[in-house]
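task queued by scheduler; priority normal; single chain, no ligands, no partner chains; default sampling; output format set to C-alpha cells
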Amino acid sequence: MKRLMLFVCTMVCMAIPVRTQEVRGARLFRNERISRAKIASMMDSLANNNFNVAYVNAWSRGR
C-alpha cells in the first residue's frame, strides 16, 4: 500500500507543470563615479533589451 501511495504521489508531482523563469543578466562594473541619470539610462537600456537581472559590482579593490 505504501508503495502504491508513493507511486501515485510521484506521478501527481510529475504531472504538475513547473514554470521556470529565464534569467538574462548583465554585470555592471563600477569603474568611475557615475550620475543617477546615467544609472537610470543603463537600467532602461537593459530593460529595453530584455535583461531582467543586473549584477552590480559594488565593492572593488577595497574601495
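post-processing summary
- The beta strands are 25-28, 53-56.
- Residues 26-63 form one domain.
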